[in-house]
Recover the amino acids of this structure.
């Protein structure tokens, strides 16, 4: 009976995945190879005359190669945000796990509050404008770091509890200072959870739509998700080019997720078990 339930759960999970993820992806794939007239029908059938390459060329050169600029901006945004997240969150998780005091509950509450309380758009824009960071890539990087900080800190803190304190003590006895102790000994031991944060945060930041829309307006600052506006309007929507654009910006995070899928699961489970 238990095996039947287990098989039923697994089959249900597979069917749910197919319905939620693969059917929409198939819909995008077949319609991105059609012409404008055929794609406007929004059917699930394959194109009678496939023109994938023509649609890709049109999407890439549209509006003076805006998609190329968008890929560059999104790559810089993702790489810089992930690098800052790893260093800051690993440090914060290490301190919160190793040092406990009267203020520790307050810090833990603030981190949890960061996961619960939604960001306020207008006050954030007012603060960024006062600091001269509004409409700048640096400002958006700081926004992404702030939004990803609570989740990454909790992962690092949970994983850090599985590293014995004797490691710290042995390093101190050998003459290692605080910087050398963290970057030379502790940070390399955090590779499983670091890989998890890199993959999850990269997909989230690369696919972010609302934050670049609010905090980084302008055609020169466009990111990949905002290029979807190129082929849709109030009156006319070029569905074949729109779906081609979606397909192109979906491939990088999809490949990243498929390649590092095992690392994601390993990092999440290791942090939970050791915590």
């Amino acid at each position: 009976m238990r095996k039947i339930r287990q098989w039923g759960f697994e089959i249900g999970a597979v069917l749910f995945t197919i319905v939620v993820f693969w059917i929409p992806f198939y819909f995008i794939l077949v319609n991105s190879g059609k012409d404008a007239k055929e794609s406007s029908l929004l059917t699930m059938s394959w194109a009678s005359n496939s023109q994938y390459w023509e649609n890709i060329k049109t999407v890439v050169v549209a509006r003076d190669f805006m998609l190329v600029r968008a890929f560059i901006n999104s790559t810089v945004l993702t790489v810089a945000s992930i690098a800052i997240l790893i260093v800051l969150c690993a440090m914060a998780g290490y301190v919160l796990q190793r040092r406990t005091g009267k203020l520790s509950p307050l810090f833990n509450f603030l981190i949890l509050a960061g996961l619960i309380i939604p960001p306020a758009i207008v006050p954030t824009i007012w603060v960024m404008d006062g600091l001269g960071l509004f409409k700048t890539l640096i400002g958006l990087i700081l926004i992404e770091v702030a939004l990803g900080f609570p989740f990454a800190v909790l992962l690092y803190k949970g994983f850090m509890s599985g590293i014995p304190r004797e490691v710290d003590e042995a390093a101190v006895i050998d003459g290692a200072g605080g910087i050398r102790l963290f970057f030379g000994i502790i940070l390399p031991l955090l590779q499983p959870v670091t890989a998890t944060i890199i993959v999850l945060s990269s997909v989230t930041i690369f696919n972010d739509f609302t934050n670049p829309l609010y905090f980084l307006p302008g055609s020169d600052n466009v990111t990949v998700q905002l290029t979807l506006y190129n082929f849709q309007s109030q009156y006319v929507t070029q569905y074949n080019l729109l779906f081609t654009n979606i397909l192109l910006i979906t491939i990088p995070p999809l490949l990243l997720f498929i390649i590092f899928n095992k690392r994601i699961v390993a990092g999440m489970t290791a942090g939970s078990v050791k915590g």
In short: The chain has one domain: 64-274. The domain at 64-274 is CATH 1.10.3720.10 (MetI-like fold). The chain has a mean pLDDT of 86.
